[in-house]
Amino acid sequence: MSSKLIVNPPRPVPAAAFARQETYAATRLPVDLASTLIPDAYTSPEFFALERDRVFAHGWVPVCVLDEVAEPGAFVTVEVAGTSVIVCRTKAGELRAHHNVCRHRGARLCAEASGRVARFFQCPYHAWAYDLEGRCLGTPLFTPEAGIPEEQRHLFDMEAVKAFDIADHGLHPVRVAVFGCLVFVCLDPDTPALESQLGDLGERLAGYRIGTHRLVHRASYEIAANWKLVAENYMEYYHLPWVHPGLVKVSPMADHHRWQGPGKYVGFCTSPIAANTDDGGWKGLPDMPGLEGADAYSARFAWLFPNIAVNALPNHTVLLMTFPVSPTHTREVLYMLADPGSLEAAGQLADEQVANLVAFWDDVNREDIAIVERVQRGLADPAYTGGRLCYRFEESVHRFQNMLIDQVLGIVRVPGGDGSELVVSS
Predict the structure, then answer these.
(1) Are 143 and 260 found together in one domain?
(2) Per the structure, how many domains does the chain have?
């Protein structure tokens, strides 16, 4: 049968078919023959539930940056695959992550999105408490600050209770790891280490030293579109001339280049970086000291699977973290960070230069949001069953969609880079 006859199935695709290889036959073709992922993957509640379980519940998911949990006692609470997780910094300066649920009756420990505690997390229901390492400190009587009158403290003494050891009742742990300035968590204890997912990305970005960067701006966006549309729009530059008239002036199509090695990411770069125009641009803050070779005049872009964009430039870094809320709703957080050397060199102009960069990124991001929301509305039309990928500009989308298909089908595989073979993990 001719390969041109391999097309996506008609809609709606039965939920049972989402876990079958043949459903994705058109997207599994080589990129010059392939069609896009089935549209139901962006609209179906059943597909959303499947990828929440097979992608987000079993993979490494970015949740915050180091500056948000820099000090002992600092914490953030995040939702990963429908599970609330506390990420915190211990008194010893170590990162820990815990399920946000009391071991007694299951109450949610932390309702705040972020904060800082002096010594412990305390359940609002029966006052069980847990230190930052997740150890149970005991039932209500453990410090004078518990608010229990002296004459009543004996009522809360658990020493006489049989078969009860507080050491057995600590918070359920969650795996946590760091890449650069990013903090990741993983709900699955059997998932390979984060390094296996990163491939060579750490080496490729080493010159930008993003682990030393400091947070200078954070913003959030609510997007009426599926998280994958946000990802796919980010990683292809086919749309630039029509969607980003300002960006294309400082990021010309001719200066975009493939920048892909082995790993669960999609990479490209702009080299050289063009000067700012009246619409703004990526320049402003002084470049960080010590950059060498092409890093000194290039912008590196990577979408790390599943849901984080890393934009590394000589004078700042921007992260775009997407959190799936529903099949048609995404919450996105934008972080801008800068090397201390760049900020020091800017002196009194640092705030102004950061503000100019923020305004430029915000304009570009809002243009992207408008177009992906328009795509989401179009995908609701049952007549649309998928489109042919433009092999010249959408190889990155093809790579991302096949990583997603692998994960949905339970295939553990790290894609190879240019000129390399696929790496299969056991």
Answers:
(1) no
(2) 2
User: Which of 111, 77, 72 is closest to 93 using CA atoms?
Assistant: 72
pTM over 0.70: yes
- 313 and 241 in a single domain? The answer is yes
Residue 423 belongs to a domain? no
Using CA atoms, how far apart are residues 137 and 185, in angstroms rounded to an integer? 24
Q: Are residues 255 and 359 in the same domain?
A: yes
What domain range includes position 359?
204-414
Q: Does the CA dihedral 402-404-410-412 come out positive or negative?
A: positive
Domain holding 104: CATH number? 2.102.10.10
Whether 50 maps to a domain, the answer reads no
| pLDDT digits (tens), the chain, 426 positions | 444 568 899 889 999 999 999 999 999 999 999 999 999 999 999 999 999 999 999 999 999 999 999 999 999 999 999 999 999 999 999 999 999 999 988 899 999 999 999 888 999 888 888 999 999 987 654 444 455 667 766 655 656 666 667 778 899 999 999 999 999 999 999 999 999 999 999 999 999 999 999 999 999 999 999 999 999 988 876 555 545 566 666 666 666 788 899 999 999 888 888 888 887 778 889 999 999 999 999 999 999 999 999 999 999 999 999 999 999 999 999 999 999 999 999 999 999 999 999 999 999 899 899 999 999 999 999 999 998 988 777 899 999 999 999 999 999 899 998 854 444 332
Main-chain phi, psi angles of 385, to 5 degrees? -115, 5
Backbone angles phi, psi at 318, to 5 degrees: -125, 130
Last residue of a domain, one of 175, 196, 220: 175
Do 137 and 223 lie in one domain? The reply is no
Q: 292, 282, 290, 287: which is closest to 255 by C-alpha?
A: 282
